[in-house]
Specification:
single chain, alpha+beta, Double-stranded beta-helix, globular, AlphaKG_dependent_hydroxylases, oxidoreductase, antibiotic biosynthesis
């Protein structure tokens, strides 16, 4: 069962109360009968001037196309309705990503489906084979992004600029490798990062990753799914990944990640006025297929910086060379 606060206005009265509830419930909290019914009331409730519950952040560098419904609130669930969006921590493939995320139900699926799935990252880690856990700790992940006219999102939209030199500078200061396609219509970015991070409140070391099943765009190697990306070679998709040493994930490793998530999934069966709050550092979310109309709003907030040069990456047996530029593209 999900931790549910019926009419949880006490939880929404202060940031202190919200954070305490999230920490108590392992980063997953569903507020029923909230005052949030659309993008405007979401912003009003979560970003009130006296005591903002979430410090909103932009979607810079994100891999999907999202429209701002109002300032600080984006549309959500825009991927094809027939897909099961695999569970992931939002934007955890980037160096700067939200530590808090909130979803509001504006309109549940009018025909069927559309549940949001949630899973605790610790549960996923615990179900992975021991060799995979060891590789995650020692090798980290190399993330490979493609932004271009053939992808989901152009680099101009991803980085809010029309100047290639701005993207080059963005990559340079982060130690990312960069390669332009001919005429700079698209760009590949690659960077190696630790799989684990230190939680800013609990100080515990936690697994925080995007989906590593290799099936975000649909079943691997098949035409079923998000066309045309599902049928592309994996390394040509808008987002792909390798181990931090440049070696490829095996199909069994990708399947192991998917099975570990599926074994611990819980569902949010949406009702209008529901507000789902997640600690994005310790919980993952996904979405099941749906039919009919469905409208969701999302607010990203409290950005976390994965790479912190003054500390040189995380120590204690973790893969620590998080500032080393990638050389594999």
């Amino acid at each position: 069962m999900l931790p549910t606060h019926i009419g949880g206005r006490d939880i929404l009265q202060s940031r202190k109360a919200l954070i305490a509830a999230l920490d108590k419930h392992n980063g997953i909290l569903l507020v029923r009968d909230s005052p949030v019914t659309d993008a405007s009331t979401m912003k009003e409730t979560l970003s009130n001037e006296e005591d903002p519950l979430i410090s909103s952040m932009s979607y810079t560098g994100g891999s999907n196309n999202r429209t701002a419904l109002v300032d600080g609130v984006l549309d959500a669930g825009t991927e094809p309705h027939y897909l099961h969006i695999p569970e992931h921590s939002e934007m955890a493939y980037l160096d700067r990503f939200p530590s808090l995320i909130s979803f509001a139900c504006v309109l549940p699926a009018t025909v069927s489906g559309g549940s949001t799935t949630v899973v605790e990252s610790a549960a996923v880690e615990g179900r992975l084979p021991a060799p995979m856990r060891a590789k995650l700790r020692t090798l980290g992940i190399e993330h490979v992004m493609y932004y271009g006219s053939e992808g989901v999102k152009t680099w101009q939209l991803a980085f809010s600029t029309s100047r290639p030199q701005d993207v080059e500078e963005y990559a340079r200061v982060r130690g990312w490798a960069l390669r332009w396609t001919p005429k700079k219509t698209g760009v590949y970015l690659s960077y190696r990062r630790a799989s684990f991070l230190q939680h800013p409140r609990t100080r515990g070391i936690v697994l925080s990753q995007t989906d590593l099943s290799g099936s975000f765009y649909g079943p691997r190697g098949q035409h079923r799914g998000w066309a045309p990306f599902a049928s592309m070679e994996f390394h040509r998709q808008p987002y792909s990944f390798r181990w931090g040493d440049g070696s490829e994930w095996t199909e069994e490793e990708k399947d192991s990640w998917g099975r570990a998530k599926e074994a611990s999934l819980r569902r949010v069966e949406w009702q209008k006025g529901d507000l789902l709050l997640l600690d994005n550092l310790v919980a993952m979310h996904g979405r099941l297929p749906f039919e009919g109309d469905r409208k969701m709003a999302v607010m990203l907030g409290d950005p976390y910086e994965r790479v912190q040069p003054d500390r040189g990456g995380w120590r204690g047996g973790m893969w620590v060379d998080s500032l080393k530029p990638s050389t594999v593209l």
